[in-house]
Amino acid sequence: MAGTMVSFKSNGSTASGYLATSESGKGPGIIVIQEWWGLVDHIKDVCNRFAKAGFTALAPDLYDGKATKSPDDAGKMMMALNIDEAAKKLNSAIEYLSNHEGVSTKKIGVVGFCMGGQLALYAATINTKVGATVDYYGIHPSVNPDFSKLEGPVLGFFGEKDKTTPKEAVEALEEKLKSAGKTYSFTIYPGTSHAFFNDTRPEVYNREAATDTWQKMIAFFKESF
Fold first, then answer.
1. Domains, the chain
2. Tens-digit pLDDT profile for residues 153-202
3. pTM of the entire structure?
4. CA separation (Å) from 185 to 135, 155, 162?
5. What's the rounded Cα separation, in Å, for the pair 144 and 133?
């Protein structure tokens, strides 16, 4: 069952996102945060996969309808993203989802990919309704979460050959979480590159790692809230 585009109030205006409701009728709520490409079909498909697994998932559109396949354009859109505005949209998306009739839990899970991975961590520090966070190779130079405000556990997935989020960046993130006394678990997948979960990009997609992370993520969200 495919999802649909929805609108919700955000900071005195209207934001939009892709919503896929649990095929079982109700389920835990999950916010899915886009890569730097925008709200593309891959992210919508992730929401649909969550719905099949019994969750209700919402992917807010942080670029207001803009999307691209060009790395140069994607980089420009990512750097042009107003982080304060993005935070307001994420907060609004969490509030919208937590009150949706298709959501059965008081807490919300958040997962993000690439740019969205870092924003997922950020969302978890600005809204107490976030009960668990999954970071897929997160990176954004302008996003610096205050981990002292993080309440739920973090699951992180990274690629050994990821030049965008190298081992040093992963270790730095780990140190911040450790220093803040937070619960986390990171896995670095051997031989994988940045965006190894994205099955629309055969040049980087790794089926074995993607399948393993999906199974671990589903179990993590079911156990965490």
1. 4-224 (3.40.50.1820)
2. 999 999 999 999 999 999 999 999 999 999 999 999 999 999 999 999 99
3. 0.97
4. 10, 5, 18
5. 15
